[in-house]
Every structure is written in C-alpha cells, then in structure tokens.
Amino acid sequence: MKPITVSQTAAGSTGTIPLNVNVNPFNIGIAVVVSGTVNYTVQYTFDNVWSATYNSATATWFDHASLAAQTTSQTGNFAFPVAGMRLTVNSGSGTATMTVIQAGLA
User: Fold this and answer.
1) pTM of the model
2) pLDDT exceeding 70 applies to what percent of the chain?
3) Which residues form the domain of 65?
4) Cα–Cα distance between 66 and 78 in angstroms, integer?
C-alpha cells in the first residue's frame, strides 16, 4: 500500500482508512506528527468497512495500546489484522497528521 496520510485539526475523527486483511504478513506502520497543542488517539475497528451499511459513527472502535491519549509525535504498528483505522483528536487546537503504510502492497 502506498502511504496514506490524514490530518485532523481540533476535536474530531478522520474518515476510516480501510486496510487489506488478506495480506500476509499483515503489518502496518503508523506515524503521527503533532503540530501545536493536541491530544490524539489512533483507533481501529474489526467491523466490515467494505459493507454498504458500514457507518463509522456506529462502528466499534478500540484504542491502539500505545497510541492513546498522546500529546507528542509518536510511531507504532499493528502486527495483527484490523479492518480499518482512524485518527481521533481528543482535545486541543493543533493538528495531528497520521501516515499509514501497509506491508506487502505497492
């Protein structure tokens, strides 16, 4: 997968980034860069993001273990399959920018 970059300024969530659960190994690299003052969390879901009835507002979201309630630029990863992910700004007036790369896809 080519790098995907999303940004969120002030409180709220980005759109869902769908991921390919059929890639083996399933490895995702994540980098979040902070500008200004912001508290953010990287979240993931196992819900079927490809379904015509998918709604990110009603999806079940889980917080990434090491990328929750962060205030500085951080990196992390997923070594297990997840259907989709997003970046949520919990508070602050700054901007958080997340870049995601999935191994095995070009």
Assistant:
1) 0.94
2) 97
3) 4-102
4) 11
